[in-house]
Amino acid sequence: MEERPTPFGDDGRDDAAAAGAEEAFLESLPPRLREVRARRELTRDDLPRRGDSMDDPQLSAATQRVWDAERAEARCLAEKHRALADLYEHEGEYEEICEVDSVDAARAGLALRVTSGAATWQLRDAYQAVHLFPRCLDRLETGGMPTAWFQKMLRTSRPLSDDSRRKLDIAVSSWSPDISPERFFTLLKALIALLEQRENRPDPAAGLRRMVELLPSVEPGVGTIQVSGPIPDVLAQWKRLDECARAVQAAQRAALKEGTEIPHDPDGRVLETGRALPLHELRFALLAGADLDLEGVAVPAGRFRLNVMVPALTLLGASDEPGMLDGTIPLPPSMARSLAGGEGAWYRVLTDPTSGAFLPLPADRYVPTAAMLEHLRIRHSMCAVPGCTRSTSWASECDHIEECHRGNPEVGGPTEVENLHLLCWQHHLDKTTGLLDPTRLPSGRTEPGRTRWAIGRHGDAVTVIDDLDTASIRIAEDLADAWSCFLRGIRSAEPFADSGADPVADPVAGPPPPAPEPDRAGRVIPMTPPPGDDSGPPPSHPSRDRRPRGSTEIPEGPWGEHGPPPF
């Protein structure tokens, strides 16, 4: 097998020069980071004495089994890193290519049973473990380094450059594996800080991250935006936002006292409660309503509306099935009803009640219509590639599953819903270059659609189904159960069963009970018995000679489609 060249490059030095450079680096370290030794060796046989379990053979054996399991886990982790590193196929620097090529992440995600985002991080760690930390990886494979130590080293060394990580591997691999974990983590943190200081960074502030990201929702109906940046900038923005909120709060209190118009009270809460809004709510309102200065840059209109799917019975208050925001974020029923009640237009989405599949919409044009795109958004709330978690609400592209030829519409796939899907731009590029090959599988009209994906040049295949509306399935089951209970209640309350004997003429039964008062509130008409049932007239339509004494005379038919009076 041909050995793949190291993607991070080779300095071309011979072994003697490399050994000299390593020795010089170790000599440049402080003694506490260079000479790391333990007072005594930690072995498997020494565990009972070190753990004070010499008098308990069962506890000692359990401790040694944990030791064996940890060494086996370390070997498996090393093997996993080497296998993941072999999955990646490219020439050049990993850090530059990983942002564009996501086919290997999809392939790794299939094997690891994780999303493409999680697989990308594991690919990154595995490639760095093999090519930047080869000495520590060898110690991990032989059981000389615990898995927690190795994974901690990978995570905390991410801010370092490749050259600094190679030096970190040289230093850590020379440490004794018998030191305590507290000492290892303390020395590791100090060594990483030292290597960061030695790196040639012209502007230390440039290395500070500046980012605004949407975090996964933890509490139902609540989202979180995280802002990270240099502490002076963040504090300045916070101070300004807080001062604005306090000024508005003071103005609200003054308006309440003087009886003037209350500022920033669109819902009328301040006027209703007689108290100013809390500062945290005012900060949110001011931040949400702030205008962004784009210096004349035009922002394109949103391609999709923000979909909040609410089951019909939830709107009516007859069900507590949650709503769904963009098909991925559940909303409490009360919030879903409130959002729907505040909108001037609703859009009906038809689903199959048994499978939950979104019913397809017909189209014959090449350019997808707005209705087709909205249907695809509902059917694929995230990129259609298996394992990809990028939302299709923004930065998505509509693509033909079977390629469509613009100049010759008779050749290639048609522009219809079953031949369209939404992809993120990275996976759309991979499909165009032939690294992804989807095939739409046949399915019934009311069944959820299925797509088989061939990933990579080796053709690893996986089949995925479209998104479903699980609320439709649940509501259909609830309606079926309610109808069954309704029928059981009607049949159990039938007062006139055809037993072949007149209850009035039965001497044992005693005098007939008094006639019940007629129900003026309403009347329930049970189902008609099935054909062929000649056991007697329907219970709701008793014959005249079996009508109880004192009851109201029912006029002759016909009665119409709603049955006898009072209908």
Automatic annotation (TrEMBL):
Residues 551-567 have a biased composition (Low complexity). Transmembrane segments: none annotated. Keywords: Endonuclease, Hydrolase, Nuclease. Residues 1-16, 32-53 have a biased composition (Basic and acidic residues). One of its GO terms (molecular function) is endonuclease activity. Residues 527-541 have a biased composition (Pro residues). Residues 1-65, 497-567 are annotated as: Disordered. This is HNH endonuclease. It comes from Brachybacterium ginsengisoli.
